[in-house]
Protein: Phosphate-selective porin O and P
Organism: Ohtaekwangia koreensis
Amino acid sequence: MKKIYILLFILAPMCLQAQENYWIKTDSLFKYVQPVASLQFWSTYTMGEKDQLTDNGPMESVQDRLNFLIRRARIGFKGKPYKKLSYAVMIQYDNMGKDRFSAVRGSTNTGTLGILDAYATWRISKNEMASLTVGYFHPQISRECVTGDLLVNSFDKSPTQAYIRQHITGKGYGRATGINLGGLTSKHLVTIDYNVGIFSNNTTSEEFTETSGKYWSPLVVDRVTFTVGDTEKKNYAINYDANNYYSKRKGITVGLNSSVQGKTDIFTSNYAGGFDVLFNYGRWNIDGEWMYMERHTEAQTYNMKAGHIRAGYNLIIKDKIFLEPCVMVTNFEGDQGAQFSGEDRMLDVGVNWYLNKKNCKLSLHYITQQGHGDNNYTDDITFKKGDFAGLAFVLLM
């Protein structure tokens, strides 16, 4: 019996050691858990806002007003517990304090937390050629849709990205649950970046956008970019950086995007396609995009078009003063009876003061808005957005 105990005592550690060979060891479960947070605080003064103040009554002018709001507040975690596996989870707490009669786009928030992103990316190749991303994230279409909300050099993101997101996913935030294959490769001065994704919870019911309904079709999205000169990014990721590289980049990137979805409860087919451009050369930062959207129903076909162009110029006045005057023009057009119709136009003129690149920024802008029809600017019955001047503070941690 003693011999048996001694044998077991010797063999047990060997068995345990052998069992360990079955598991993929983490590089570090905790070393690569990185908390992240961001804050965008706005002070705006709205002029010329109109709203329907009584049921079935006419639109009336409301008093011009000053409004302080937290335009965006985000907190979350990201990390890389394994050499080829990374993840990100982000919670949003946006539009706190937004006045109902403010000219700022978007709904008010009375205290609701929400999941903004929750995904993991697994690099399946030895280089950056192929990675799989699964979870809840942006389908990779349209630069303006997938660039971080706090990273653009206009006062806010172009309002045209809301039309693209809602046409494709049925939701203003533009996220969906699915899987995406993507990667990038560079040779000499040319870089190619690609993404192909399939998503399940999309525009399938006018009342419940996460419900499949009687009919179900997956959403398929693809995007490819070609860069000549300095690359946008050296490593593959589904997130895009700021469009200002602080006079360090000399390159141009052209992206081609498309999406397709078959029959659901509210359409027989749904398409989108277009292109986007980012140009950085010395002090100049120029970007823009144009997207065409088409929806077929049993009886008719409806078209929408949306795009913007934005330009900034870096000025170094003296130590600690890095300024960027910036202008953006946007335009949306939709057929009568489409998901959104009429016209929606915006002009944004202002200046950004970068205290620490994208991590800390002050902005002062003036925004004019006009349009008609039934869209995010007005429905010609119950509301019409005004113009506004805005002061913004952005902090990324």
Observations:
- The radius of gyration is 24 Å.
- The mean pLDDT is 90.
- The longest strand covers residues 65-82.
- Residues 2-20 form the longest helix (19 residues).
